[in-house]
Amino acid sequence: MAAAKGVCLNHIARETPNVKRLAEFYQEILGFEMIESPKFAEFEVIWLRLPPLFSLHLIERNPESKLPEGPWSSTAPVADPKNLPRGHHVSFSVSNFDSFVQTLKEKGIQVFEKTQPDGKTKQAFFFDPDGNGLEVGSWEAPQQ
């Protein structure tokens, strides 16, 4: 039996040198909405929500951080979505997979597409402007 009860995913945080640029990407590409964010004196944050419940917190990168800057999700020296490790990405479902992927390509976003052996499930892998791995799939979103 798990120690925690009533667990649900609250948010995912991404550190970035440019919170406004990353917020615009997630709003334009995936339809996130800006929500009220706390104001911190030391660093900038923007909080986004994908209705009904999923939140993404974009946090200004600590300039004193010893960690290297992205692309975090790629093991290759060039951010090629073919090299996106299978265990390091955030995934979304979309109901308009083909037109969504076409829009990514029109915006100059490099996409690696894959169709599962069932011939029905399609996946697209790509990176946000900071090199964070993203996946979009054609499967139906879970019902609430």
UniProtKB/TrEMBL annotation:
The lineage is:
Eukaryota, Viridiplantae, Streptophyta, Embryophyta, Tracheophyta
Q: Which residues form the VOC domain?
A: 8-139
Q: What is the name of the protein in this document?
A: VOC domain-containing protein
Q: Which InterPro entries match?
A: Glyas_Bleomycin-R_OHBP_Dase, Glyas_Fos-R_dOase_dom, VOC_core
Native organism is: Tetracentron sinense (Spur-leaf)
Please, which domain of life does this record's source organism belong to? Eukaryota
